[in-house]
Specification:
The protein has 307 residues and is an alpha/beta fold. It has seven helices and twelve strands. It has a six-stranded mixed sheet. It has a six-stranded mixed sheet with strand order 4-5-6-7-9-8.
């Protein structure tokens, strides 16, 4: 099989001027409004337009989006996000998971995540399984409403149990497993206030069942961490905001192009970092490096029965 080319984008925070009702003002959304007024000059429409063009120019096979597409989880933002995603290409070539800003407050599904159904393609709840050639893209939902000043994530026992089954089944089939979620999976990757509450349980699943790569957002800086697998460490790669100007809190907009090499043999990922260059007002290649991916030994059929 030929190599596969993926794009990883995250934390778009699409510009949106909120019109809150009185009830919405008296909620956690008001804190995000104050934060947005401080940061709205950083997440720029021209960067997002350039991101669109850059993704098209690189003719990737599949785009993965790891959350925080919105700012306030308002119904209008979910519609705006759907309009932004649609021109990226056929829906089956995009996989999306939500972030904490996409679950800031409860939104009726018909006005919220149901509008993103073309890119989640849930058949039986979370996690989903999208097969792209010999690659299995497995999307987790770590986003849930939290108390003010918190941005923690949670997967829950049911989602983790299903994840272990999916990882085991896909691993036994010899497929390359890429796990998507918004919150970092590695211990210590982010502070307690923004961390994945059941991160230890997720890491235990990955150690038993294995995966070849974990992709996430949420952190303001690009990160490469390692999570223990059945035999070898599992790389855990973060892309920061794909729309932010460089500033004291953000490294600046970037996206990762991942070319999976050696499918069916020694598996590697060639990572090309496409970073927003203020001087040229465009995305440029900042670095290229290779990751050796594990071919983890999955759990036995008895440990991970078929779904």
């Amino acid at each position: 099989m030929s190599d596969l080319l993926f794009a990883h984008i995250s934390d778009l925070h699409l510009p949106f001027e909120p019109q809150l009702t009185l009830r919405q003002h008296l909620s956690k959304r008001q804190l995000s409004v104050w934060s947005w007024y401080r940061r709205r000059a950083l997440h720029r429409s021209d960067i997002l337009d350039s991101l669109h063009r850059d993704l098209h120019d690189h003719a990737v096979d599949h785009v993965v989006v790891t959350g925080d597409i919105t700012n306030f989880s308002l119904p209008g933002e979910f519609r705006q996000a759907a309009d932004w995603l649609a021109p990226l290409g056929p829906a089956e070539r995009i996989s999306l998971v939500p972030g904490n800003h996409d679950a800031l407050m409860y939104v009726p599904p018909a006005e919220g995540l149901d509008l993103w159904a073309p890119w989640t393609r849930l058949s039986d709840g979370w996690p989903y399984l999208h097969r792209v050639g010999e690659v299995s893209v497995i999307g987790l939902n770590s986003a849930l409403p939290t108390a003010p000043l918190l941005a923690r994530g949670w997967l829950g026992a049911q989602q983790l149990a299903r994840l272990e089954q999916v990882l085991g089944n896909e691993g036994r089939a010899g497929r390359v497993r890429i796990v998507l979620l918004h919150h970092p999976a590695a211990a210590g990757a982010i502070g307690w206030r923004k961390a994945l509450a059941d991160g230890p349980a997720l890491r235990a699943v990955l150690k038993r069942a294995g995966a070849e790569l974990v992709l996430h957002g949420h952190a303001r800086d690009a990160r490469l961490d390692a999570i223990a697998g059945p035999r070898e460490p599992i790389p855990c790669l973060c892309v920061p905001s794909s729309s932010a100007l460089p500033n004291p809190k953000d490294q600046g907009a970037r996206w990762h192009q991942l070319r999976l090499l050696g499918i069916g043999g020694d598996l590697r990922a060639e990572v090309t970092v496409r970073r927003w260059c203020v001087d040229s007002n465009a995305f440029t290649t900042d670095a290229v490096y290779e990751l050796c991916l594990p071919r983890s030994a999955p759990g036995t059929a008895a440990d991970n029965p078929p779904l």
